[in-house]
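Anyone opening a protein record will find just a pair of labelled lines. A complete record is shown below as an example.
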Amino acid sequence: MNRVRACVGAWAVLWACAELSWAQPAQEAFNSIFGADVKKVTATSDPRDDIELGGLILRSAKETKDANDLLALLCENAYALLARHASGYAGAVEAMELLGAKIPARRSACQDKILAVRQKQYQSALGPKRAEAGEDLLDIVLQGVEAKAAADQYDEAIKLARTALATITTLDAERRADLMGRIKSLTESEKTQQLLQQLKDRLKASPGDETVRSKIVLIYLAELDKPGEAAKFLTPDSDETLRTYVPLAAKEPEAQPEQVCMELGDWYRELADSAAMPGKAVLLRRAKGYYEAFLAKHTTNDLAKSKATLTLDKVQKDLEKLGPAATLQWVDVLRYADASKPIEGEWHRQGRQVGFSGNRGSLAIPVVPNGSYEMTVTFVRQAENRWDRGSVVILVPVAGGRVVFTLSGNVEQGSGLQNLRGGGVRAQGFSMENRRQYVFTARITVTKDAAEITSSVNGRKFADWKGQPSDVSRHWDLGHKYMTCLAVGANRCEAVFDSVKVRMISGSLDRLREGSSGGEGRPPPGRDGPAKDAPAKERPAGETPREDRPPRERDKGRDAPARPGEPPAPARDQAAPPRTE
């Protein structure tokens, strides 16, 4: 493997002559550096050669800035070498995740290859590792299911989901029920797609049949929730109500005037009155979204606001009456947290719960909600330390950054929402009691130009905020790979977290894994962070850690920036941070 080791220097030369290399065909450029080594290691039975060369090619791929054919060759060859051996599975997955992220057109093929590796991992895993491998396999299966469903390939999606149900025997009852429910909904969608195709064939044979045309429009509206597609089938002879509201429904609610939002909410609710499941649920969710958009725009306390509030409450109750099939799926993501690898502090897991006891602790939950979503965190603070009443913190991703909710055990210490440009939002009069269960709920709504956060604890309003996505900052001094994912923490107390559930409203819930190259220690475009090799700050010799100081001495530093997971409370002689409405 001397030649493999020498490749590092050869690759550096290739990089220095990047323009010349890109002028060559991608295969020729790859062969000139790695071709002979690939042939050599594949001819031997020693897995170490494969892993070494595959790792080298993967590192080269990660340094490639352009999404081109050479990147694809690097990732594909790295995968081929690493996927041959169990010790290379993680790298093989990383190679395909990198290729799928850089070249979206190849994402589907990359997911198929990741699925193949995850199947190998699951089949070879033993003991507790088998359950973990089963979760990893299910994750990639569900990604494939949703990708095929989005492409209207319902038959393929159903086959994939059924195969997972039969193969992954380690799934608990809740996960199996979720998967069976998804299979049922996919089967209904497949039937709808078949009916839609029949109607399209009839319309093609008789273009003037407005009855068939209206049925197609309503299927796109109620069954498939695609008003943009519905609008394509409208003609000047179509029903006037459809011609009025369908084009408006094809636009984002945020782009509509408040009165249009109210009218669209009423229209969708009227359609839902005569619809059957699952279309009824689709229409009610749409109506709910428009009433919420109206209330967000309409700030005057008048009859219109009261009407919208009461109607929204009725729509929500109608959705609840329809049962779980009518609501978006909640996912308990706390299962993904690895208590043996926390950001800070000592954590432990007992079944589905995770707990912390000490001065300061943070635990990453390696999932990133990309889009708008709702979340709940259920926890109990068992006890606080002898100096003051400890706090629980919840780190919440928003638009590529992350905000911090602090739930303090002392009114004077201050609870609220931090990590926002221009100051945080103080939660008035909040304090916790030991051994009492708390349910923290937040709704994060993100659009291109706006972000909104609402939150409550045990049904009581906690801290709300509106602003621009760019107003959300992020911490950079943790030195931890999961910088934009969900996280929970605690300071100077003993706390037990029962669940952390997420329900996506739009976008996707993405899971991060060991070896992931996405977002590791780097700010997203347009966000500032420290220099890549910036040294970590060290505590001056002899300085007592802040959490170990007596109360009065700790209070001297209250105005200084706090570490992540412990946003600063205002000094007791200062006003609370300004509330941003």
